[in-house]
Amino acid sequence: MTSTVRPLDDDARRMVRDLMRNARLAALSYLDPDTGAPMVSRIALVDGPDQVPLSLISDLSQHSAALQKLPVCSLLIGEPGDKGDPLTHPRLSLQAEATFIRHQDPAHAQLAQAFLAKQPKAKLYIGFADFALVQFKPLGAFLNGGFGKAYMLEASDLAPSSTR
User: Checking DSSP bridges between strand 46-47 and strand 131-144, what pairing results, if any?
Assistant: First the structure.
């Protein structure tokens, strides 16, 4: 069987950059630590100041507890457009490792400011003690740019100098 995965090119890099820069939501996939079964949740997401995806998550959520036990996860980034077949719109399946940044961490203030610049409604709860910022360090990805446009990316392809 012939592979449908294309070599990474500038158009694919641009698509990745645009998807990550414009993200406001993502589907977060993680493993339930009790059963090992996969779970999915929708989270708010922004492209952080260091160009690492960033979210704000409550410790009360199931996905927070799961990520604290097993930080490897994936994010599906990209929403279907208003017109046409939803499967023709680009999306990025990003494999990542979650890192929690708590209020007492020196990096929290700058990251919180960056998060609020793109998700201003989070101002209502970003200061709550049970909320932490979570960075998703890219480990690799699969870009589906629409029919016939598939690309595999390594962590180095997702570094700021290569995709931004």
Answer: unpaired
**In the structure encoding, which two tokens stand for residue 146, read together?**
């629409």
Q: Which phi and psi (to 5°) does residue 32 adopt?
A: -65, 120
Give residue-wise pLDDT tens across range 18-74. Answer: 999 999 999 999 999 999 999 999 999 999 988 899 999 999 999 999 999 999 999
Are 140 and 153 in contact, with CB atoms under 8 Å apart?
yes
19: helix, coil or strand?
Answer: helix
pTM (2 decimals)?
Answer: 0.93
Rg of the chain (C-alpha set)? 16
Six-digit token string for 109: 């203030």
Domains of the chain in start order, with CATH, are 5-155 (2.30.110.10)
Residue 84's identity, in one-letter code, is G
Residue with tokens 């961490």: 105
- The whole-angstrom separation of Cα 58 and Cα 157 is 30
